[in-house]
């Protein structure tokens, strides 16, 4: 495919074919149209503008955080709750505790949380497991959206991490639900956890397929994650059935 060249007073843009970098182009801060970016960046033809041109530089990827483009919302809606806010609380917690500000800032009704003698280390682990899945999903997604303009190679690597984060959140969410809803049914408890683990493993293997991230697999990707998420209805439904059966009888 021939290279198409467009020149203006402020920038020169070349459309490259396949996955080749744009050689000889003066890259300046700016946003580009769909037809001005390499084919590997053309993932969604409905989004026609606001693209960050392939940078081949992590520094330029970082600089793109400070101006508006079509990945800005994706980046910060994941980065703030998944990484920056927890990090800020972690760094500020010694000062807050030392000045007794953390306790005073929390409403009384939130502090009145019952502590049960039956609460085990496994129960605490399940909470921490969910927090880990939540933070890893959002952080990996933010990293992917922030660096996907680097190069085709980095985009593929980041895309895989993004899917790993999604799988991590689904698995840790479902395991926590199963743990508490089927607490007194060990057989169903472990069966459902193993079932979720098997599903997560299958999804993980599929995401490692190089073709999985291609645009033509978009429908399959969406369907796979929807089915994986909706499958949580099975253990939840079973737990509700046991609960209401207990009430009725």
Automatic annotation (TrEMBL):
GO terms for biological process: intracellular zinc ion homeostasis. It is a multi-pass membrane protein. Its main location: membrane. GO terms for cellular component: membrane. The chain crosses the membrane at residues 75-97, 129-149, 161-181, 187-208, 220-241. Residues 8-17 have a biased composition (Polar residues). Pfam families: HlyIII (PF03006). Residues 1-20 are annotated as: Disordered. Keywords: Membrane, Metal-binding, Transmembrane, Transmembrane helix, Zinc. Zn(2+) binds at residue 145. It is found in: Membrane. GO terms for molecular function: metal ion binding; signaling receptor activity. It comes from the Eukaryota. Belongs to the ADIPOR family. This is Uncharacterized protein.
């Amino acid at each position: 495919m021939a290279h198409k060249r467009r020149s203006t007073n402020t920038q020169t843009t070349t459309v490259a074919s396949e996955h080749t970098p744009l050689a000889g182009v003066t890259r300046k801060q700016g946003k580009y149209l769909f037809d001005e970016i390499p084919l590997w960046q053309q993932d969604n033809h409905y989004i026609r503008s606001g693209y960050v041109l392939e940078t081949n530089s992590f520094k330029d990827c970082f600089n793109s955080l400070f101006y508006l483009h079509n990945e800005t919302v994706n980046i910060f809606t994941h980065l703030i709750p998944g990484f920056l806010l927890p990090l800020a609380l972690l760094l500020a917690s010694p000062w807050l505790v030392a000045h007794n500000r953390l306790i005073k800032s929390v409403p009384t009704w939130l502090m009145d949380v019952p502590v049960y003698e039956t609460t085990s280390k496994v129960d605490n682990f399940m909470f921490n497991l969910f927090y880990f899945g939540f933070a890893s999903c959002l952080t990996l997604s933010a990293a992917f959206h922030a660096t996907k303009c680097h190069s085709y190679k980095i985009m593929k690597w980041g895309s895989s991490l993004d899917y790993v984060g999604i799988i991590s959140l689904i698995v840790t969410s479902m395991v926590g639900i199963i743990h508490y809803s089927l607490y007194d049914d060990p057989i169903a408890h472990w069966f459902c956890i193993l079932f979720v683990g098997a599903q997560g493993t299958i999804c993980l293997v599929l995401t490692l397929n190089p073709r999985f991230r291609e645009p033509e697999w978009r429908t399959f990707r969406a369907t796979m994650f929807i089915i994986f998420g909706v499958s949580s209805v099975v253990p939840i439904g079973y737990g509700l059935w046991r609960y209401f059966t207990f009430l009725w009888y």
